[in-house]
Each structure stands twice: as structure tokens, then as C-alpha cells.
Specification:
Number of domains: 2
Strand content: 5-15%
Low-confidence stretches: 1-12
Structural class: alpha/beta
Length: 628
């Protein structure tokens, strides 16, 4: 399978002047009649002028010419030797060179021979390469493919890349890493609160449960208020963003796409097709499939694909923790783009998403470091869980996050389709490999450093888990990561207050801490209500004065919370045309009870296996449909 990002060479395309065509044929004569015809070269030359790249970049990136064939023929016409593969011990980076420098120059040194180098001349046209070789005649160059050079560079720097992927944040900024679960004062406070609560429960259990529930119910009022603001924004209607003027292809930068995969060999064909539809010059795409060394079936499946030159397979060494953020950290130093986006194996981004993100960066403030696309579900009718999941995602990404954006509050990023300025991402030391909800943590660190995040009106469609056990594992991981994120950033509350400001500080408490707390507390209202029913005290006057405010606040939180959340989900779903899901809004309280079960499981797992990454299986819906 070939990743064809643009139209094939046959058929109408950009026109190129006859003189330019003749010049291209003279320069690339060694390809004509052997690998391509004159029409294909003419179309590639026209696209190269339109994109601001070389004709061979277009040919290889579009899959019209195999990279091995091109560089072998190029070496022959230049009178230089060619190597299809490089032995890592023979071809090494020049002294003091970084991975990025090696990838930018495509240059390696032959270890055993002086004045002998290996070169991947992807940035040089054939005539320019001939001139360079002639000028540097005392030195000898062996031609290799960029893929072979990248593989050698990755192999050489593997230990350093692995250390940076795992230890970078923990060593450079230990206070921002989840490697340590809690600091001393947090442990002391948690132990003291736990002991005090246990003692009080033994003395007066009903009163203490009511007091704690009342306190938490008061804390949930801002959560309800934020949902109400988001629902009002949808109800009022937001003026659609005007379509920006199309930036000429020649002015577009290189864009890196990172796709971490684990045990997802079956997803590769559909992933390739999804990426092929992106509206971006193929020669300016830097696509990296990030695979785990222990996952040999996926590695073998990826290597079996006929991938063009803009796709690179990166194999992450087998080292812990085996998490998505660690894999992303490993690949980040190898990124060639000025901007970068993360996609998962099952993602289906809208075709113009890269252009919308780039336009947001281009027209946004200088401190705009991240652009979050909206996520939604492409299998909402798979099961009752997928319908509830779709309502939840619609409310979050179409209602809640845009409201945070308008209020300029910190945004907990989604796990995919977040676009970054690579320079800002590297300055922040990228992702925390020990945080299993790395996106929410990174969004907070961006805000603390003075960076902004915007939500753009472009959607990436994902697959929602159809089976309960898969959904439970995924939700457990998310909530466990929220616990990690809250504890990490609350190690120094005063500093967090100063860096985020009062509004940002409270937004962090609502979106991160409030998400976990509300899930933990939600079932207790029903427990207390059941106790009232069993005791025959339901709808009767409270036995104590303390019971009046308790039940008043509890009922207020329950009713207004349900109304705000349901209204937000309903408005967001209807805005997307998902009218058939309207009646399922009434079953959201049952779905929240399942989230509560996942929250308690997350707390237990945080204490017993904090870095465990429970993988969500993708492609289940497609396989079930095929069997049916």
C-alpha cells in the first residue's frame, strides 16, 4: 500500500512552462523511460514549483517513484557508490552533531575510512549534487536514501533518545513530573485527613458523611456554573469562524505528524488512508509511525507497507514506563517540522485540519503554543456506551473547551489532534512519561508558562469503546492521570496561584480536581437517599437542624447539575446534527455512575500501579461489523 497524499500523475494538473519542462527533463534524464515518463515528471515539476520543493521530493512523497530507485539511479549518474542499508557501526554522525543536525544535513561519517562520508542528498537537486561532489573532490561520498540515514541516526542516538524520553522532565524539572506520586507535605496531609475522617466516622458516621458531602456539594457549584456558561454559549449561538484565505502552498512550512501505535497492526491500512486525505503538500509532511520494539506484529506490518519517503518508522526501545508520552518523547527530537500534531491509530481528521491549525498559529498571538481540534465519535450507534460517549465528547469539545478558550482559562488538552509549535513543546520538556493522562498535564504546564491554547472548528473523529471492559480501562486511565496531574501541580499551591492567576487557579481545580471529586461523590447521594428511603424518612422534615442545609444543597446540586450537563450535551449534539441521540440524554445519570466506578478503580490503581497504561483496543467496531 502506498500513502498517496495528492492526485496521481495521470490527468490534468498544474501547468508548467515548456522551458521549465525541458530543463527538468535534462536534469532528471536518468529517470525517464526507466522509472517515470515525461508526463509524470512534468506534473511533478509543476507541483514542485507550486509547493516550493524539488521535483524528486514530489515524486517520492506522492509515491510516484520509489526512494531506493531514485537514489540508486542518482548515485549511478553521479558516479558515486550507493548503499541501500547502512550498518550502524560503520556510518556514524560527525563529531558533536545532534540528531536534528544529522537529519537536516543527511550526512554521516564512515567510521573506518578518512574523508569518506555517507550522504542522503534529499535537499539537493541532481545538478546541485554534482556541483557539490565536484567541489569536495578530495572527499568521497556514498549516496544513501534518507530513510537509511534516519534509521542509522536513530540507532546511534537510541540510548540518548531513550534517556531523554524517560528522564528528561524528571531530571530537569522534578517538581513537574509524576515520577514521584506525592511530596512529603501532601502525604502528611492525606494521612492526617484520612485518620481524622476515619475516627470521626466511627463516632458519628451519618453526621460526618453528611458534613463531607455538604462541603463537596458547595465546591461543585463552580463546576455547574461552568457547564451553564458553556450551554449558554451554545444556546446563544457562536458566529462561525470565517474561512481564512488559502495560504499558498509555497509559504507552508514542514508539518510533523506523530502517530504512536501499539498492538494496532490491523489499523495501519485505514490510518494510511486517513492521512492521505489531509490537505497539505505531501513533500512538506513529516509523518512518523512510532512503534514499540516489543510489538513485532505491528512493526512487521508497517515495514511491509510500501510507504513513500515522507513516512518514517520509529521503533522505541523496550524500556519502562511503556506509555504513549514516553513514545512521543522518543520521537520528538527526530521531528523535522516547525509544527507538530498528534494522531491516534483510529483518528479520522477533517481534510483541512492542518491548514486551519496553521492559520490559527499564523494569525494568533505570539504566545499561542497549542491548537486543539475538536474530537467526536464516528461510531455513535455502536452501543449504548458509544451513544453516551458521543454525548460526552460533544459537550466537552463543542461546549466546555470553547468556553474555556473564550474565557482565556487553562485548557486540559485532548489526547489527540493537539497541534504544537515544536519550539515551545521542546522548551517545556514535552510530555511527562509517567503521567497516564499526559495531555491534561501538558495543557496545565503550557498555561503555567504563559502559553495560550485555542480550540479550532475542525473535528477529528475517533472510535468510542463499544464494550464495557474496554471503556472501563480507558476511563480508569484518564481519571488516574487526572489524579496525578492534580497532585503534581498542587505541590506548591502558592506558585500555581501566581502562575495561573486566580481565575486560572480555580479553573484548574474545577476541570482537574472537580472531575475526579464529582465522580467519587456522585454515588453517595444515592446511598444517602436509599438510607432515607429504608429508614422511612424520605420527604419528611430533617431530624436535625443540620439536615436542612444538607438536603437543600444536595438537591440543588443534583437538579442544577443534571440540568446544566444534560442541556449542554443536548445542545452540543443537536448542533452536530445528532438529533437521534436527544432521548439518550435522559440516561446520562446512569452513565455517570459508571464513571464513578471507574474513578474508584482509578484511585486504587493510583495507589497500586500508578504508571500502568491500560491500552484501549481500536478497530473493534470494524471487526464486529465485518463479522455481521
Amino acid at each position: 500500500m502506498s500513502l498517496v497524499v495528492n492526485r496521481p500523475a495521470e490527468g490534468p494538473g498544474p501547468r508548467v512552462a515548456a522551458g521549465a519542462t525541458a530543463a527538468a527533463e535534462a536534469e532528471y534524464h536518468f529517470l525517464l523511460g526507466r522509472f517515470i515518463n515525461a508526463a509524470t515528471l512534468a506534473r511533478a515539476s509543476a507541483l514542485a514549483a507550486q509547493w516550493g520543493v524539488h521535483p524528486h521530493d514530489v515524486l517520492i512523497a506522492n509515491g510516484w517513484l520509489d526512494a531506493d530507485d531514485y537514489y540508486r539511479a542518482l548515485a549511478e549518474t553521479c558516479g558515486a557508490p550507493f548503499k541501500h542499508t547502512l550498518v550502524p557501526t560503520e556510518a556514524v554522525p560527525p563529531s558533536a552533531a545532534t540528531p536534528r543536525q544529522c537529519l537536516a544535513t543527511g550526512l554521516l561519517k564512515e567510521r573506518a575510512r578518512t574523508r569518506h562520508f555517507v550522504l542522503a542528498p534529499d535537499r539537493l537537486r541532481p545538478n546541485a549534487l554534482r556541483a557539490v561532489l565536484a567541489e569536495l573532490a578530495p572527499y568521497r561520498f556514498t549516496i544513501a536514501t534518507p530513510r537509511a540515514v534516519r534509521k542509522a541516526v536513530t540507532h546511534h542516538f537510541a540510548p540518548a533518545l531513550a534517556r531523554g524520553a524517560v528522564e528528561g522532565l524528571a531530571v530537569s524539572r522534578p517538581g513537574q513530573s509524576a515520577h514521584t506520586r506525592t511530596v512529603l507535605w501532601q502525604r502528611a496531609v492525606l494521612i492526617a485527613l484520612g485518620a481524622s475522617l476515619l475516627g470521626a466516622l466511627l463516632l458519628a458516621p451519618i453526621e460526618i458523611v453528611r458534613a463531607v458531602t455538604l462541603l463537596l456539594a458547595v465546591l461543585f457549584v463552580p463546576v455547574i456554573g461552568l457547564r451553564a456558561v458553556a450551554a449558554y454559549g451554545l444556546l446563544r449561538g457562536i458566529v462561525p469562524a470565517s474561512t481564512p484565505d488559502r495560504v499558498p502552498d509555497v509559504a507552508l512550512p514542514t508539518y510533523t505528524i506523530l502517530v504512536p501505535l501499539y498492538r494496532e497492526a490491523h489499523m495501519l491500512p485505514s490510518l494510511v488512508q486517513a492521512l492521505s486525505r489531509l490537505d497539505w503538500p505531501a513533500a512538506k509532511l513529516d509523518i512518523k509511525l512510532i512503534l514499540e520494539a516489543v510489538d513485532q506484529p505491528t512493526v512487521a506490518a508497517a515495514e511491509a507497507l510500501n510507504l513513500p519517503g515522507n513516512v518514517e518508522i520509529i521503533v522505541v526501545p523496550n524500556l519502562g514506563p511503556r506509555t504513549k508520552p514516553k513514545a512521543l518523547n522518543y520521537a520528538l527530537p527526530l521531528a523535522r517540522g516547525e509544527y507538530l500534531v498528534i494522531y491516534d491509530a483510529e483518528d479520522r481528521p477533517e481534510h483541512d485540519q492542518l491548514r486551519r491549525a496553521f492559520e490559527a498559529f499564523r494569525s494568533g498571538p505570539p504566545n499561542l503554543a497549542t491548537v486543539q481540534a475538536r474530537l467526536n465519535i464516528y461510531n455513535p450507534d455502536g452501543s449504548w456506551l458509544t451513544r453516551q460517549f458521543t454525548l460526552e465528547y460533544s459537550a466537552l469539545f463543542d461546549g466546555l473547551l470553547p468556553a474555556l478558550d473564550r474565557l482565556r482559562l487553562p485548557i486540559p488538552l485532548g489526547g489527540t489532534s493537539n497541534h504544537f509549535r515544536v519550539a515551545a513543546l521542546k522548551w517545556l520538556m514535552a510530555w511527562d512519561p509517567f503521567n497516564v493522562t499526559e495531555d491534561a498535564d501538558l495543557g496545565t504546564r503550557l498555561a503555567r508558562s504563559g502559553y495560550r491554547c485555542q480550540v479550532i472548528p475542525s473535528t477529528t473523529y475517533e472510535e468510542a469503546p463499544q464494550q464495557f471492559i474496554s471503556w472501563l480501562r480507558q476511563r480508569t486511565r484518564w481519571l488516574k492521570g487526572f489524579v496525578q496531574t492534580w497532585l503534581v501541580h498542587m505541590r506548591a499551591p502558592g506558585r500555581l496561584w501566581r502562575e495561573l492567576g486566580p481565575h486560572g487557579f480555580f479553573a484548574f481545580q474545577v476541570m482537574i480536581g472537580g472531575t475526579v471529586l464529582s465522580a467519587l461523590v456522585h454515588p453517595w447521594f444515592y446511598v444517602l437517599l436509599a438510607a432515607e428511603l429504608i429508614g422511612g424518612r424520605f420527604l419528611s422534615l430533617p431530624a436535625s437542624l443540620f439536615g436542612v442545609p444538607f438536603w437543600s444543597v444536595a438537591w440543588f446540586d443534583l437538579v442544577t447539575g443534571y440540568v446544566a450537563a444534560m442541556a449542554l450535551a443536548l445542545l452540543a449534539a443537536r448542533r452536530r446534527g445528532l438529533f437521534r441521540l436527544s432521548r439518550h440524554v435522559l440516561l446520562m445519570p446512569l452513565y455517570w455512575l459508571l464513571i464513578s466506578a471507574a474513578a474508584y478503580r482509578a484511585i486504587w490503581q493510583f495507589m497500586t500501579a500508578p504508571f500502568k497504561w491500560e491500552k484501549t483496543e481500536h478497530g473493534v467496531g470494524h471487526r464486529m461489523a465485518a463479522r455481521r
